Amino acid sequence: MYDVVLLTLGSERDAPGGCGSGGACCGGATGADTGPTSQAATGSGQTDTGQVNADQAGSGQTDTGQCATERPRVPVLACADALNARGARVETVTARSDAEIDAVLARFDGPARPDGLTWPDPDSKTRLVIATASDGQLRAVLRRLVKRYAPAPSKRPADLPGNRTLPDLPPVAVLPLDPARGGTHRDLAAQLGLPRDPAAVAAAVLDGTPRRLDLLRNDGGSVTLDGALLGAADDAGRPLHWRARVEVDDTILTDGSEPLLACAVGNAGGYATLNDVTLLTAPDPADGQVEVAVAVPVVVRSAWGRKRVRLEVRRARGRAVSVLPREGRVPYLDDGVESELTRKRSWWVEPGAWAVWSI
Predict the structure, then answer these.
(1) pTM for this prediction
(2) Which string of b and e fits 70-86 if b means at least 16 CB within 10 Å?
């Protein structure tokens, strides 16, 4: 029978500003693209109030006051009961820092390799359930998995697929803690059709099969599971114009000379729409490509010479995308976590790099 670890990142029971909503457990990239943002443009519902400084996890900054939790939440206990009833050995862990996440992930290490790399054990009898109140919390764990198992470019082994920079990551099960995100404001679990009931999640862990999905890595040291939405609005909700050069493989969607209202980088469909505008037409987290769209306001004249503004959406698909801001700071959401882009950022696809247990 399996050993199952039920992992929770702190607590969001009392306020959305707790661990996983911008605190150290949320898990963003280290570096300069951090700090308070203006009101970020919102897509189809993935916003997490209070997620202002998403990139603290790698720097070791933790707020144990925010992350303190007295006991696991009810869905976690229900899932543990269902697993115990099937004979699994269950351990519940609340991680309040990257180091505590890493201690759990170390259980998936495989035997020592001749090249000295740490690689996941494909025959591991340990299974991981991540209890998530937001996609940012799920991303936090996947980011640490990538950090643990991705080799440095100088140590790239011969047995690594040519289109990947990391091995197959261990499958994880997702236990959603926020019922509302399964409805109108769809989280990644809802988009993927994963079970939300604790007993069904337990069944997926013990009886399911791994469903492999694409992962977006970026040059800021983090990962994206669903997508990113770049842009902002003023206090009245009016979109603000900004400029950036956006490239997808060899296709230039905009060279940075014209104003933009939004840019969507999609692995899945969380940012497929912005208000009533369709940005992404067919994002698929298992097709080995990233879909990118920019919304450009274009001034046109009618036959009577009157001016009006038409929103033009340009789209492209490929293996990699880069966004180079031309001026100032560009607020954005990445898996629901707010941050600011101040320099060029590139995302690239790791086909089938991570997996979820599903039935």
Answers:
(1) 0.82
(2) eebbebbebbbebbeeb
